Amino acid sequence: MAPKIPSSVDGLRAAGNQSFRNGQYAEAGALYGRALQLLQAQGSSDPEEESILYSNRAACYLKDGNCTDCIQDCTSALALVPFSIKPLLRRASAYEALEKYPLAYVDYKTVLQIDNSVMSALEGINRITRALMDSLGPEWRLKLPTIPVVPVSAQRRWNSLPSENHKETATSKPKETTTTKSRVPSAGDVEKARLLKEEGNELVKKGSHKRAIEKYSESLLFSNLESATYSNRALCHLVLKQYREAVKDCTEALKLDGKNVKAFYRRAQAYKALKDYKSSLTDISSLLQIEPRNGPAQKLQQEVNQKLN
């Protein structure tokens, strides 16, 4: 005997969730669709609930490879509750599958304005950036649709959600740190990386540190074997007071070149700003073993020692 179909919106949604977990995506999508019809028939003024149902059905369409209907449902969800992360991510994935890379880039970038730690968006941006550079050339950014500015209220709404709402967006590791690191860059990739690094250097000279970070990040997509690219990006993070990011980049730089004096110095500066004075002194000591007469390092050492006294 077939199980009885629930007669309430909550029941239909719960049944849809169970079918989705069981891998029965068509059945789940149908249940979400029934819930939507019932909700709309009731004349409910609950845009949050309606948006979730559209987004959930979009996930079913995406799983079944129906990208067109996925995009339509995500757009409906976002019309009800703008800047919701899950429909943005699902629509971006559908655009990417259809090779509509500029639109996918906009959605991934919008997600990162809301929460810059969403791994699936970071992963998507890495893939899409390479595709756009290959297809549109070095001026690809000029050919993108406008990226919307996310209001602070949307960021607060996301941050206030229960932690389980964040799980879907934070389970995977960016592919830049997995597939890219295992890939040996071609001669062409190395040359593209070099040119992008030089563009970043020119932007630093002009004081455009945010744009420089973008260029260095693009450079690392083509080749992440250049220690100086990481230490240069670290400098930009320092200027922008993004100290933890600066530490990470310096650490990557030192993995590639254990005698990168600038990486030791910039990481020491970042540690000092983070009030991790012992780590700062350790880096200064390592630097001075390489360059005993390095004046800026000696001055920084004095400043850090004063903090400890």
Structure explained in plain terms:
This protein has 309 residues and is mainly α. 71% of the residues lie in helices and 0% in strands. The protein contains 16 helices and no strands. It has helices at residues 9-21, 25-41, 47-63, 67-80, 85-97, 101-114, 119-136, 152-160, 179-182, 187-205, 209-222, 227-239, 243-256, 261-273, 277-290, 295-308.
What attributes characterize this protein structure?
about 300 residues; mainly alpha; 16 helices; about 70% helix
Characterize this entry briefly.
The protein has 309 residues and is mainly α.
What proportion strand?
under 5%
Report the C-alpha radius of gyration, rounded.
Answer: 24 Å
The global form is elongated
Structural class: mainly alpha
First-last Cα distance? 78 Å
**Percent range for helical residues?**
over 70%
SSE pattern, N- to C-terminal:
HHHHHHHHHHHHHHHH
How many β strands by DSSP? 0
